[in-house]
Amino acid sequence: MNLLFIGDVVGRPGRRAVTQWLPALRREVRADLVIANGENSAGGFGVTPETVNDLTAAGVDVITGGNHIWHTREAPTLLDAEPRLLRPANYPAGAPGRGAGVYDAAGGARVGVLNLEGRAFMQPLLSPFDYAREEVERLHAETRVVFVDMHAEATSEKAALAWYLDGRVSAVVGTHTHVQTADERVLPGGTAFITDAGMTGPRDSIIGMSRETVLPRFLTLLPARFEVASGPVQLNGVLIEIDAETGRASAIRRVNRVEE
Q: Which of 74, 69, 4 is nearest to 32 (CA)?
């Protein structure tokens, strides 16, 4: 089976990129399931019913999140109500929503999706390693195909989780830093890994935000309100080939589209 993951979707431009390219891209790569990180889909911070509807209408099957997913008033209710929307599993008990789920892919395969958030240079959440071990065991009761979105700042923490889970999950894909890395590979145990899938949104930006609102923050060190950039858009992602019987990945490659 082919699993397509789309890197962090930023604001309206990112949603436009998904709407513009995903229908044809899904057919081209014969994707059986499409997952997208949507924590920045609402104005650069958070999710809303509109952003979830835009992404799912374009062909996204599952939306993962991260530390910014909470930044809208609608987020808690939406996370509880929408099974296709995940937030990191390693938030404390009682947090709205769910951190993992099992979804039907084309062709009859079932795919477990687990969302985790790192702790290095981020909030002191519960251990993503402990949660990964527990959640993967639970997901294996339903399927051998398990995909992990590791939303983290530190490249070392993402790599550490991938090696920790090698042979137990189909893929560990990093998100959060919005810059696509060139280290995609399949680890010896059959787990596909890339440090960061990249960003889907404004191309001529500072990780999705307008240069005019970000530069003053670096030049003056004063607080600044960031705004999503405009202009041409890009789509970053990865395509992963997985044996639906064993859950082992056989290939991972980067997928990119850029608007001229």
A: 4
